[in-house]
Amino acid sequence: MSEPRLVEVRRNVLKQNDVIAHALRSQFRAAGAFVVSLVSSPGSGKTTFLEKTLTQLQPRYRVAALVGDLATENDAVRLARSKAPVKQITTGTLCHLEAAMVQNALKDWNLHDLDFLFIENVGNLVCPSSYDLGENLRLVLMSVNEGEDKPLKFPTIFNSATLRL
Amino acid sequence: MHELSIAMGIVDAALDESQRRGVQVSAVHLRLGALSGVVKDALMFSWEVACQDTPPQGSQLIVEDVPVIVFCTQCQVERELPSVQLFACPECGAATMDIRQGKELEVFAIEVQEEEVRE
Fold first, then answer.
1. Quick one: B15 and B40 in the same domain?
2. Are B39 and B58 in the same domain?
3. What is the ipTM of this complex?
């Protein structure tokens, strides 16, 4: 056996996710669908915000939503009250959505039928920040009653977001 | 806690690189940005589990912390941030979101053990 040798490889670990996210982004652009992802802690109001947004946008725009949770279809049921097409993604034990799950959930939807697609991530201020979903913009929500210092405590997600509400 | 799946991604990358070269991996060098969203301790903890029953089993994960560097438009230079909580130039205080470094999650190199090639 020879001495260990250092070989430079330079590989991005999340490349597989990034490749899928990139493909999704091209697909969204080609179809003319604008995609917004929502992240926040559990219980800060993502679903309420989204339900109202879907309802208000609908007279003028074609909208739809994907919603991620570890378990239950509760949020999909709530969002469906807006009458917009909604699909629940249940992640099992996974704490965030990945691009492949979005791709899979969109399989039987025609993106050309949409002006806006909303993707509600799993309630979590940590893990979703690492995963590109192909969205045009990422919206992070916070409510003061969950602690006004959330942006200081979870800087990565707040810095990675396009909009902070 | 998504570090285990990230550790498995690192194992896959190292395995792929080593198999292409026909070598055995003894260590993996990772560049980890302060904005990568990955916790170093949790990643180190996951490493052994992620390697189990794969050829890199028993290999070492060596993590290089990569600090955040931003470009300050006031000073017209790149500055290293002392913390990820405040995106402002540490010298002049001007706010900036022009991030030049710090999102890395990259297998930078692998240490390999090669069999001597016999003539």
1. yes
2. yes
3. 0.74
